[in-house]
Amino acid sequence: MRKPLFHIAAVIGLIATALSIPVAAQGEPVRVAEFLAECPISHRLADDPIVLPNLAGASHFHDFFGNHSTNARSTLQSMEGQTGNCNPASDISSYWVPTLYRNNTAIAPTGVTFYYLGEGVNNPAAIQPTPYGLKIVAGNAKATGDADSIARWSCLHAGHVNPSKNFVTCPAGTMLETYLDFPQCWDGRNLDSADHKSHMSYPVAGGCPSSHPVSVPKLRMVLRYPVNGSTAGLRLASGTGQTMHGDFFNVWPRAEMERRVRNCLNVVIKCDHNGNHG
Amino acid sequence: MTTLLLAGLLAACQQAPPPPSSPPPAPQNGYGATERAFVELAIATDEQALKLLELTDSAQLRGNRNIELAELRKLLDAPYVNHHAGHDMPGMPTDAEIQLASTDPEALKQFVRAHLTESLEVLKSAGPAITHPPTAEVVRLMERHRTAELAAG
User: Fold this and answer.
1) In a domain, B137, yes or no
2) Is there a domain that residue B19 lies in?
3) Model confidence at A206, in pLDDT bands (50, 70, 90)?
4) pLDDT tens-digit map of A102-143
5) ipTM strictly over 0.85?
């Protein structure tokens, strides 16, 4: 019974390919609550403006994406009005992760996407814009194994390789990739906290807990590294693959963030880099 | 009095919620976020360095690190948490380096020197950023120690 359907889908696909028209563009917008920013590596420094503020050169090495000015002394005020390398250019937020090494050679990711999603909560219509100046740290830089890690490593174009919390061996012709989901429930008061984590929380059973009642976009970082084959010699500046962590300092202009939350997440529509949909 | 109290309560109720904020900045010259981050980092670095220095025959080096650790711990305003274990931090020998140094005297010499030069760089960077006088004093003590230790070869 499924074969004829498959044929129809294949034929539509062939026609669409011949006409060079994406199939989705002919129908309804894609019902996925999403907008995104793609930001290649901007610079690399042994700095961490959230964990080691003002202590230049005191951290392990980080790869910084987005805002070009980020360093140990960065504040919201210092980053405002600067430029970055994100698509869209309006996103001058800063994002950073520990540098990946093969032995002592640093390897920069070649694909860097930050998705802002409406998933994880049952009521996307209630999602509020990410507060201006919010700082979030996700992942566990101190992870000692799988049990205390939320890292996820997999292979692009090799779905048969099981994901793992540590590095995985990717077949030739594929790329090592890592996903990191940031907490999406805010306490409604603090842009940061002493441990840089307790002002944020993950949702519980599809909703934000009463301690962190404000639902904000779920930030998902996806990094792709030009790495495959053996995992021998692979390490992060923070240790094993399980220690993958990410930092986010929100400097999206308020109006740009608000428009995307309203037009993409609240109404559950997939938007492009400019926050628009077909 | 009652009227005043009621008026005060009403005014309080009518206030909008405060705008979101970062943790309150430390009072000027207080023990703030930068000082706290420095002290926790310096304890982690010195404790890890001691494991390397145990391999040397220099009681002076070990003694200096222990003096620093005692001073640093006095500055803590909350239970100490090691945020940097297992990380490749400047001045902090990794477990793999300590392992190698335990069997290779030349590596030991190199890693001890790297500990001193790199942690001195961090201290020079921290100096201008630390405004809390007791913390600044420990920074200067640590700088003096490393400068003398490097000079002694």
Assistant:
1) yes
2) no
3) very high
4) 999 999 999 999 999 999 999 999 999 999 999 999 999 999
5) no
Global pTM exceeds 0.90: no
Distance from CA of B53 to the nearest CA of A (A): 21
Residue A58 to residue B90, Cβ atoms within 8 A? yes
How many CA atoms lie within 13 Å of A22's alpha carbon, on the beta-carbon side?
7
**What's the whole-number average pLDDT of chain B?**
88
Residue B57 lies in a domain: yes
Nearest-CB residue to A191 (from B20, B85, B121) = B20
Q: By residue range, what is the domain housing residue B46?
A: 2-9+32-152
Q: What is the CATH number of the domain that holds B70?
A: 1.20.1260.10
Shortest CB distance from A58 goes to which of B41, B82, B88?
Answer: B41
Q: What's the CA dihedral at B131, B135, B138, B142 to 10 degrees?
A: -60
> How far is Cα A79 from Cα A204, in angstroms, rounded to an integer?
33
Residues of chain B with pLDDT under 70: 1-27
Of B22, B37, B121, which has the smallest distance from its Cβ to A52's Cβ?
Answer: B37
Tell me how close the Cα of B73 comes to any Cα of chain A, in angstroms.
Answer: 18
Q: How much is the pLDDT for B26?
A: 56
Q: Would residue B15 count as lying in a domain?
A: no
Encode pLDDT of A4-33 as tens digits: 333 333 334 444 444 444 444 456 789 999
The reported pLDDT for the residue numbered B8 is 44
- Taking an 8 Å cut-off on Cβ atoms, the answer to whether A131 and B20 are in contact is yes
Helix/strand/coil (H/E/C) assignment for every residue in A207-275: ECCCCCCEECCEEEEEEEECCCECCCCEEECCECHHHCEEEEECCCCHHHHHHHHHHHHCCCCECCCCC
Q: How many structural domains comprise chain B?
A: 1
The residue type at A224: R
Residues from chain B that touch A60, judged by Cβ atoms under 8 A, are 84, 87-89
Q: Which residues pair with A95 in a beta bridge?
A: A65, A248
Chain A residues in contact with B90 by the CB 8 A cut-off are 46, 57-59
What are A252's two structure tokens?
């999206």
